Structure formats: structure tokens, C-alpha cells
Amino acid sequence: MLALGALGIVYGDIGTSPLYALKECVSSPHGVPPSPENVLGVLSLVLWSITFVVSIKYLLFVMRADNDGEGGVLSLLALSLRQDGVSPAPSLARRAPILVLLGLCGASLLLGEGIITPAISVLSAVEGLAVATTAFSQFVVPLTCLILIGLFVAQKRGTAGIGAVFGPVTLCWFVAIGAAGVPWILRRPDVLAAVNPLHAARFLLSHGRSGFFVLGSVVLCITGCEALYADMGHFGRPAIRTAWYGCVFPALLLNYFGQGALLLQQPRAENPFYALVPAPLLYPMVGLATMATVVASQALISGAFSLTRQAVQLGYLPRVTIVHTSGKTEGQIYVPEINSILMVACLALVVGFQSSSALAAAYGIAVTGTMSITSALLYFVARSRWGYSRWRAGGLLALFWAFDLSFFAACFAKIRHGGWFPLVAASSVFTIMVTWKKGRKLLAQRLALAVLPLEDFIADVERVKPPRVAGTAVFLASSRRGTPPVLLHHFKHNKCLHRQVVILSIVTDVVPEVARQDAVHVKAFAHGFWAITAHYGFMQTPDVLQILEACALHDLRLDPADTSFYLGRETLLLDPRDHEMALWRKRLFRYLSRNARSATDFFAIPANRVVEIGAQIEL
Q1: How many CB atoms are located within 10 Å of the residue 579 CB?
Q2: In a domain, 196, yes or no
Q3: Do residues 263 and 217 share a domain?
Q4: How far apart are CA 305 and CA 331, in angstroms?
């Protein structure tokens, strides 16, 4: 049942879309009347969108592009930059900046759009109370806010804890929504005509521009694709495919066709999802829908945590607090900073938009942008990893983009009705990512100017013969080359060295995980100097004490109780005459640096063993 709850988290966003998707498609936002022909046309668009985008594109092709089992746009980016599983391909290295730009745009868009998911999911479920009686209308927004607050507060328990609580809800939800649609399909079996894609084609051709913009509402039924792909590493490709084809897909089709049958009979039904349910079962369905949307929201939240850690490890975001909520599963983490940002943003959206229909107007443009970027990155993976020819990979890209870009263009009409919000959020995230990466690069260049080759420093130590005190000193270095500036400052001011000096560099490889036996490399130098290079994947969190323990296998034995850790703390001074980066971006980088989580906490270094040495650097 716990595994079922986990799979429910994967399918949550797609699985709860019947609450609002078809309602928005037939609510005549672009002047399309809800006639029987239009209902069949829209239903056919929904059917074939789910079939092609989810069942074919993502489950058969995109999920094949797993980066050592991990999915998501950043994993896909890392995979597109790899050759033979490790190094960048020469042909792709020239295009690496473009690929990185695409990956960062995709990640930013996904986070920007994802802020809306908990808000619209929970709000649409609670709106069922207003269907039962208008007396509950005034309580919809406050109750939604309370549920969202409870959901975000519960995140510290971890995905496993939430999955254990809501595991049974997943099965009940899909059985319930499928069963709700069956009686209406039996009443109006003519709704099954929507299986014919000609209804979709006639709808688009007959309504022209208005019919095309309806695609902006149809996209609501597939917005969980990227979350599904991002969570692949938690549950595995076979389990996801089995659950989709065996449970989720049939249940969704039964419910959507049931809603379509109801609309054929009651064209003016305001909320076709809840109208399927008999009156005595309405309140239980509202309760079940609310719990299911909590599971749906969990997919976004856990995905945001995972995406944040990947960005931090790849050097695109400053260090944040990463709490491991499971002693067995590496991927189950909790990021308090991201959790707080998402909670505030979701509450602001609910209070600001007031209804799921208003939120639906803001939904879709960013996720369709991410889907388009995923298709582009998949092209490079197909060329470099699968051995596809240029024409074969290009044909696949053209087919995928025919859907992706159509949805993306149709969603442009939403910008002035709220679609600007996810774009602004995505732009903010993108700006932070590229500024942090650029700032760290400039900072590394400044530090490199003062770097002394380690061999020269050791030769100087041999010549000067400074006093050597008992114990071990570990100096953390961002670069594997040269003598760390913090070691030079320590020697300059203290005029002595420990008997054992260790230079530790932690490197993030473009793979999800690095096997423990391959993670630590040790090199011995003269006069008690050692260099350690620790390799981690972007789905792993470094732990300095574990690294030191692994050094015993390389004849380097370190006693943590007799070891001091030396870290550098840079104070950034802004030079307005330097134009390598705009002044406002330098100020943003300085702000991010000041508020980044300390290396002591991030690398799990005992705080009482840390010595920080400051330095001023002009940027």
C-alpha cells in the first residue's frame, strides 16, 4: 500500500485533472458553445492528447532517457552532455552552452508553473462543497488555505510518511472516478464516438482561431507529465508504466467520457465532475477529492525539493538546507526554504484568484514550454546516446513539437489573464540560476589569480621548515588545482602547519549517483600533505565525515576528534569599473552568497572543529 501511495504521488497531477480540465474546455472561454458536436470534439482532443503526450511521448520515449535511473529536465540535460556515461561528447561540447540554457529554462518554467499545482488542485476539490449548497461558498477559500498550510507543515515528515497516510486514497480515487463515469457512458453510449480523431480535427477546422485556443484548456489534462518523469528515479520505469496502463489511464478515460456523456445530456452543467456523482455520495467524493489533491500537490513539492538539490549540486543555486527524511532512500529529502516559498506563493494565489477557473487561466504556458524543451533535449540524447540518425531524431522531434508548440501557442492567450504569473516566477528562478553560476565562475577566476601550485608550496615548506603541530588540518578547496587560498592565509598568519595537511575537493559529476567505492580518490605528497578528491552525483548530498572514513581504504587514517577543518569565507567587494557582470547582478550574487547555507552545515562538518578564515575579494 505504501508503494501504491508513492505511485499516486507520481500520477497525482494528471490523476486529479478531471476535477477541472473538461470543465474549462467546454466553458466557452473563446466563444465556443457547448453543443453535442463541440463536446465530442473537445473530448476527442482530450483523449488523443493524453494518449499521445503521456502514453506515447513520455512513457515510451522520454522515460527511456533515464540518467542512471533518474528523470527530470536537469537529469536529461546532464545526460545530453555525457558520452560513454562520463565525459562530454566532442560534438556536443560546442553546443553545451545552448543545452545548458535550455535545461535551465526548462527547470525554471517547471518550478514557476508548479507553484500553481497545489493551489488549483486543492481549490478545485474544495469547490465541490459549493456544488452541494451555496452556503459553503464563503468557506471554500479559507478551507483551501488551511489544507495547504497543513500539507506544507507536514512536509518535514518526508514523502514516505505522507505516502503511508494517503496510500489507500490513491486506489480509492481512481476506482471512484472511473466508477462515477460508467453509468453516464451507459446512458449515452454515443459519447464513445469521440474515440474517432476526426471529431477533434473537425472541431479545430470548424472553429478556427477559437478552436485552436481551446487547446490552452485541453492542456490541463496533461500538465503532470514532467512531474511523472521527474519522479521516475523514485519508483522505476516498469512500475510507472504498469500503473499507468493498468489503472490510471483506464480510470481517467472512463471519467472523462462520463463527463462528456453528462454534457451531451446537460450541456449547461457548471461542474461536470461533481455532477457525475449521486447526491448522497457528493460529500464523500469531495472528501476523497481533497485527499487526492493533497497527494497531487505532494508530487510537485517533492519534485521541487529534488530539482533544487540537483541545481545546488550542479552549481546553479546557492547551498540550501537539505534534510534527509529517510534512512533508506537517498531521494527522500525536505528543503525548508523551498517549502516556505511554495507555501506563501500558493496561499497568495488562492487568495488572489479565489477560484479554480481563474487559476486555470494562468495554468499551462510554463509547463508546455518545459515540454517543448524536453523534446529538444531528447533530440540530442537520441543522437548521442541512442544512435539515431539526424533525420530519424529530427522526425521524432518534429512530431513531438507538433503537439508541444501547438499547446504552447494556444496558452499565450492566457498571459493577460494570469499566465504572466508563472512566467514571472520562472524568469526570477532563471535569473537567480544564471547569476549564481556566473558569479561563482568570476569568483573562481579571482581566486585562481592568487593560486600557488601545490608542489611549489610544499617545496617552500621544505625550505622554511615551519613548526608542525600535532593533529590533522583539512582545507576545503573549490578547485582541485593549486594550493587553496585558505591554506596560504593560514600559513601566512600562523607561521605553522599541522603534521598532517589534507586538501579536500568535492566534485559533482553529471551523473545522479557515484558508487561509494568510486567516490574517493587520495593522492599522497611529501611532508605529510595529502590531496583528496571526492566525487558525488547531483542526486547526492556530500558528507565530509563519510569521506574521511573512506580514506582509510587508501592508507590515510584520520581521527575526527583530532582534526580541524579550515574554511574560507569571502567578503565580496563590488567594483563598478568591472563590466564582466552587470552591477545589479553582482549585488544579487552578493545577497545570495550572504544568505547561502554555511559550508559547515551543508557538508555535515562538526561545528566545534571548524576554523573560518575571511578574505576580501573584488568582484
Answers
A1: 8
A2: yes
A3: yes
A4: 9
Pairing of strands 529-536, 520-524: antiparallel
Q: Which of 540, 558, 531 has its CA nearest to residue 604?
A: 540
Domain end (from 403, 418, 433): 418
Residue 144 lies in a domain: yes
Picking from 509, 532, 510, 530, the residue whose alpha carbon sits closest to that of residue 521 is 532
For residue 361, give the nearest of 423, 407, 422, 418 by alpha carbon. 418
pLDDT digits (tens, 9 = 90+) for 171-195: 888 899 999 999 999 999 999 999 9
Q: Say which residues have a Cβ less than 8 Å from residue 271's Cβ, sequence separation at least 6.
A: 23, 127, 128, 131
Q: What percent of the chain has pLDDT over 90?
A: 15
Prediction pTM value = 0.82
C-alpha cell of residue 245: 496502463
Burial (Cβ within 10 Å: 0-12, 13-18, ≥19) of residue 501: buried
**Secondary structure class of 534 (helix, strand, coil):** strand
Amino acid (one-letter) located at 463: R
Joined together, the cell numbers standing for residue 371 give 515540454
Reported residue count of the chain is: 619
Note down the domain range covering 16: 2-418
**Segment holding 232, helix H or strand E:** helix 232-235
pLDDT digits (tens, 9 = 90+) for 362-411: 777 888 888 899 999 899 888 888 888 889 989 999 999 999 999 888 88
- Cα angle 397, 244, 124 (rounded to 5 degrees) comes to 95
Q: At what angle do helices 282-313 and 140-153 cross, to 10 degrees?
A: 40
Please say whether the beta carbons of 220 and 252 come within 8 A: no
DSSP class of 30: T
